[in-house]
Design a protein that fits this description.
The chain is an alpha/beta fold. The chain has a single domain, classed as Ribonuclease H-like superfamily/Ribonuclease H (Nucleotidyltransferase, domain 5, 2-Layer Sandwich). It is 33% helix and 23% strand. The chain has 5 helices and 6 strands, in the order αββββαβαβαα. Strands 1, 2, 3, 4, 5 and 6 form a 6-stranded mixed beta sheet that branches. β3 and β4 form a beta hairpin.
């Protein structure tokens, strides 16, 4: 997934290695049949399903993903994702996230990264897109177009992650610029 995203960045006349990544998570309901790894979690702890975490660059290209039961907080899932994936980004200088990820300050400080926490303006009660984090939400929306990802029908975390990666690869292939022969 990362190799294809780097190729697309080069097509867009960008450096192949991103200097800034954005992280966010999404909770999806689980399938209804059989024993699975799904757990209750999400907002107010009522969604039985999975938590999908992704790393996206400024172009909205997914670079890495992780799937966990819905129970752990977004911060815990993001910490595990970043611990696995940060060594693959030597040029990374900044990480952008929303208020749920304030706990990443120690991790980013140890790695020498700037952590930029974005929040909506004070006094606004409705949904307001926050720049540049709307790129992550757009990536989740594009991945959600894959019908298989409307719910998590998988029995294992590995299978759920594989389907998320397949959808991300399809999204990346759609973003590639193909020259006519």
């Amino acid at each position: 997934m990362g190799r294809l995203a780097r190729a697309i960045r080069m097509d867009k006349e960008r450096h192949p290695e991103p200097s800034m990544l954005m992280v966010d998570a999404q909770t999806a309901k689980g399938g209804r049949a059989g024993p699975t790894f799904h757990a209750a979690g999400g907002r107010s702890g009522r969604t039985v399903g999975t938590k999908r975490s992704i790393l996206v660059d400024i172009l909205g290209l997914p670079f890495a993903c992780r799937v966990d039961p819905a129970r752990p907080h977004d911060l815990a899932s993001a910490s595990l994702l970043l611990a696995d994936e940060l060594p693959a980004f030597p040029r990374l200088r900044a990480l952008v996230a929303d208020r749920a990820y304030r706990g990443l300050a120690k991790l980013t400080e140890r790695r020498g990264l700037a952590l930029d926490i974005k929040a909506p303006p004070r006094g606004v009660a409705r949904f307001v897109p926050i720049r540049p984090l709307y790129k992550v939400e757009h990536a989740f929306a594009q991945l959600g177009r894959w019908r298989r990802l409307s719910r998590c029908y998988e029995q294992t975390e590995a299978s759920a992650k594989a389907w998320l990666e397949v959808a991300a690869m399809g999204y990346l292939f759609a973003r590639m610029r193909i020259e006519p022969a």
